[in-house]
Amino acid sequence: MVKTASFYTLLLTLLGIACVSVAQPDTLVRAQECRPRSGLPYFFQKVRTGQPVKIAYLGGSITEAGGGWREQSLKWFQQQYPKSGIEQIAAGIGGTGSDLGVFRLKDQVLAYKPDLVFVEFAVNDNGKKPMPIAVAMEGIVRQIWRANPQTDICFVYTLSATMAPTLAKGYFPLSASVMETIAGHYEIPSIHMGLEVVQLAEKGELVFSGKPDEYPGKLVFSADNVHPYPQTGHRLYTEALIRSFGVLDKTATKPRGQLKGPLYPNNWENAQMVSAERATRSPGWQVITPATDSVARKLSNRFTFLLKAANPGEQLKVRFRGTHFGIYDVMGPGCGQYRVVVDGQEPILFPRFDSFCTYYRSNYILLPPLPDSVHTIELTVDSQTLDKAAILKQRNQVISDPAQYAPKNCYVGQLLIIGEVL
To answer: Is the pTM of this model over 0.90?
Structure first.
């Protein structure tokens, strides 16, 4: 019997959560635009004295978006503190949450030595169980301060239309509420950039989705209830951030002491990415580069090393000691699916094609928690032909070029590990 990834993930994730002895962080937190807590002492010390500053933006597509709150706020910081020569570390990846963010943090953020890290995952984490959010977010915090205790952190929360009713009642949705438990434990400031959006919608002055010219006299937040227009939704986000920095600028701070003990001992502070070249692979796997492959070229800002297999049956094998395993890979028109076997158990299928696959994007597979021991993972390119037309139809998309969708390719760039590769 072959299990699907969604069923297997749900089952083992629930089992893994059931084994955790700490309480679930599932209480909704009162909504507040800015909670200063211990503020941003080192950031303000540097900008006030004109020292160079690097600001990292770690998040999903709302953070990645061109012309959005990331670029708008960076411009504001540069204008506000012109002597500091403020630079950005852009680390937003669409369709990903804190569970990938904690793995890619070291390579994509900490390697560039940030002075301030914004962490934005509330939308992409919404709908997940509380504990996976908590252990990933705490892992992010502990990795940052283990690398440099003088790097300031600020949690920022955005919203989708589905989260608005909870916010309108005066509470953060579950994902942001869970993140607040981590922020509270470590005295990290947090900013919800979407409360004014909800207030305007409640007054009838803003609509969440549509085309701007269809609603004269009103603000149109987005085209899809999630991804804001730069001139409206993102502008409101930026204005909330600027207001909150006015509060943070006046927050009394003191130098950060020793890193306190973890709130959740099973947090993911040891999460890491390891190059897929460490895997044992069958002969059909090819190393592809931007010079030789169009997919590698399109995703050159994501992968410094990328493997591709075009033929069913090609296999990757990894032995590792630890508790978590995954891969950082690619989804797109010409992708197939993986057949994954963990420690000789029944195979699980992980399709690398979904209803958004009209283009190539980086993505990831993360297996459910495993016992802390030695494991063998086998990933095989599956022979099954996916009904890509039916999958695309879910979002009213059609296949315009059948040849583009015909391949069953699989890609992998990094291994996601909590533990060590053997």
So the answer is: yes
